[in-house]
Structures are given as C-alpha cells and as structure tokens.
Amino acid sequence: MSATDSVLRLEDVWKAFDEHTVLQGIDLAVAPGEVVALIGASGSGKSTLLRTVNLLEPVDDGRIWLGEMDISDPAVDVDAVRARIGVVFQQYNLFPHLTVQDNITLALRHVHKYSKTRADAAATVLLERVGLAAKARDHPDRLSGGQQQRVAIARAVATEPDLLLLDEITSALDPELVGDVLDLVRALADDGMTIVMATHEMAFARDVADRVLFLDAGRILESGTPAEVFGAPREERTREFLTRFTA
Predict the structure, then answer these.
(1) For the chain, which has fewer Cβ within 10 Å, the N-terminal or C-terminal residue?
(2) Is residue 242 in a domain?
(3) C-alpha–C-alpha distance, residues 169 and 166, integer Å
(4) pLDDT surpassing 70 at residue 151
C-alpha cells in the first residue's frame, strides 16, 4: 500500500530507550476507514508505536507517513501533524480548570481557528452524541471516569482528524464504565473513522477491528483479521498470549 492509498504508513521503524530496543523494524500500512487493533503483553511496544506516530517520541530509524507527508522528517511541522491526528490516552488528560465544553472547543478555536459560535455549536453536537449534553458547563472533576473518557474522545474527534489513536483507553476505568466508552468507539468505527488502538479488550478487538496485530518484544509477530488471529493464530507465542489472557 503506497502513501497515496494509506492514511498511515510505517516503514522499518526502530526505537530504543538507552540499551532497550522497544520497536524493531515495524512495517504497517493503515487504509482509510480501517480499524487496527494492537494487542500484546505490557512492554511489547504498543504504546511506544502510538507515541511515535503522534511525534511524542522520535524514531531512531525508519520512516512514518501520514498520507503523503513524511512526518518522521526532523524538519516537519509537529503542530501541523498533530492537528491531523486525534489521540486519547489511558488517562483522560482533560484540563481541570476548563468546563467540559471549553475542553472540547479549545483546539477548535486556537488551532483550527473556529469562531466561538462555530466551536460551541460543534461541541454541542458532540456532547449530545456522547450522551453528555447536560454536562457541558461542568468541570471534569464532576464527572465519572467513563464520562471523562467520553469527553476526551469527543475532544479528539472534534477536529475531524485523519487518524484517531487510542491507547488502552479503558484501562483506568471501573469495569462497569467500560461498555459506554467502547460503544462510542464502535460508533466511530461504524462511521468510517480511521483508528489505530492499543487495547487489552480482546472481545472488543475481535468485534470492532478490521485487522489485529500481535506485538511481541517490539515486533509485529502476527497480523490478520480478528477471525484469523483469535480463531487460528499461526504463531505459538500468539497462542500462548491469548490462552493466558482469556484463561
């Protein structure tokens, strides 16, 4: 898949922290509207892979393309790249001093230069979609963890990004709050959003992803449809992981 056919493309990407190599020759191409789930044990490189795509970590070798732009070029405009990518982390990272509505409109107004009226209108639509219209004037500390994460997702998609990165977005939630957040991601996927998500929710990955990548020690050890990876994994290491995870 060429840069013109893909939203995201990684070519032989390597990353190390001191003497520890975290990513080892990652090759990945993500098509428009595709949902790719990254699974693997803690320390397998899932979060680091996402952080390199959002330019939070520079790569040591290899190239990363966002559409036709080589975003691994050291001269790239980092702010311009991040304006095209929505990111949601394990922690909600909402600004505590801003209302829910202002959290969503901040980037719209200051990065994308929306008028206040236009930004507020967009926030209203998004908050209705995530079921939090009544919370627009509240501050984040008045919300449950699941509500905060839904606001974080709304903020990430408010700018209509080319790509949405989700990094274990349910790991900090109480189990009873996970479902609402995953339902929202499922709806975004159904709408055609291009998503790369690191997740430990195996059932969700099986249900929503178009493709599942199993990472092990910084390598993509196995890649395929959910039916292939979960139903008939080729690699013994994948089988061991899934057996332990679902035991």
Answers:
(1) C
(2) yes
(3) 6
(4) yes
Task: Tell me if 229 is assigned to some domain.
Answer: yes
Beta-bridge partner residues of 28 = 10
Residue 25 has pLDDT above 60, yes or no: yes
In a domain, 3, yes or no: no
> CA dihedral defined by 96, 98, 80, 60, rounded to 10 degrees?
0
- Residue 233's CATH number: 3.40.50.300
Range(s) of the domain holding residue 83:
8-246
Identify which of 91, 88, 104 has the alpha carbon closest to the alpha carbon of residue 196: 88
**Mean pLDDT lowest among 138-142, 163-167, 168-172, 208-212:** 168-172
First vs last C-alpha separation in the chain: 37
